[in-house]
Amino acid sequence: CSNEHKLNFRKSKEACLSYIQDALLQKQWKRAAEFLTCYVESLEKDYSREHIGPSEMIWRIGSEILWHHSQSSMKEFNCFMEQMKTLGVKRYLKVCLEHAFHLLCNGQIDEAYQHLSLAESWRFGEQTAIQDKEMKLIQAYRGLLDYCSWSKQKNILLEHGEDGFSDLAVEQEMHGYFRKAAVNLKEIIKIPGVWDIFVKCYVDLLEFYGDHNEARQVLNEYAYNSKFPANPNAHVYLYQFLKRQGESKKSLISALKILHDIVPSHELMIDFNTMLQKSKKRKKRQLGLEVIFAALDYAGWKENAKAWSCLARQVKQTVISEKHLDWIKQEWNSRKDWWPAFHFSRYLAKRNWQENKSLSYEKALVAGILLGKDCKYFKYVSHQGCKAQLKRFRMLKKFVNRHNAVCLRISG
User: Are 312 and 370 in contact (CB under 8 A)?
Assistant: First the structure.
């Protein structure tokens, strides 16, 4: 072929791909399918040796179209995936894995298991070693399905444990699934990575059979091994396990401290704050104040009544005792430029009062202490509360007025 012909051919391919991309972005699946057909037909006339790129694109684009196209069926999708498996051995296991995912999404669990089993038995010279990680993923997902079968049998055993013979049969079958699942799940979580679902399932298996030491070791490794990426869930799973085991407060606090450092807005920060506030150590109580302030820096916590209640209780106790006012002042100094607009505007006072009076009470108490009795939020809510003749709001107003001098020392 002449260079001019090759150039024109490349341009037409690029244009066709551009049209496909445009159709995909606009979710025009029928139009995308038509352009993909043209693209495949044009490749049949392609005399160049660039086969890797196009086959990868056909697989990825084609599976996306078939997944969303209103007229496509699972039979067509299966047929397409089988064709894709023959396009290149380098992507064989990846295609097998994606095929299994689609079957699972359609509730075809047995079929997905069969496809994963077939993929696991695949061998192709040096490619087998090169695709070792993909093979481990195939095995891991098969282990996950074995875990699901184990869980199903476990529930049958727990719910209908009347007939001794059927019990024994179910139990034997359950142990079979346990052995297969445990082997594959254990292997995948040795590789540095994010393996949340596999870790949770493996730990569930271990805990059910009373192997708590192994479960602890797995979770510690997942949370603290520096080869693994930083993962908040790893610390959540460890904390939940320690809590189930009735571990000491010190261990629980240690697990949540790292979670706080990674994700200060995590929902478990309320548990963390509660534990810290019960501590006899000043440093831990101060950390508790830091934790709840930090959580309320995030928009997702703005209307969390429990969080505001935690903060309100702590600042109220501090104002009454007049001890450690510097702790509050330290936290407030870095926030006094933006928290008033973020949390304590008159607009929010009206909305909070209408939607959740308990929330507005806790916030008004914090606002009154941090900003004084002239704060817009405090004035509006306390006025509405007194007008509605609610005793707690009258007491709130009296408390802030009585301690206004202390509040001014905090607000500076």
Answer: no
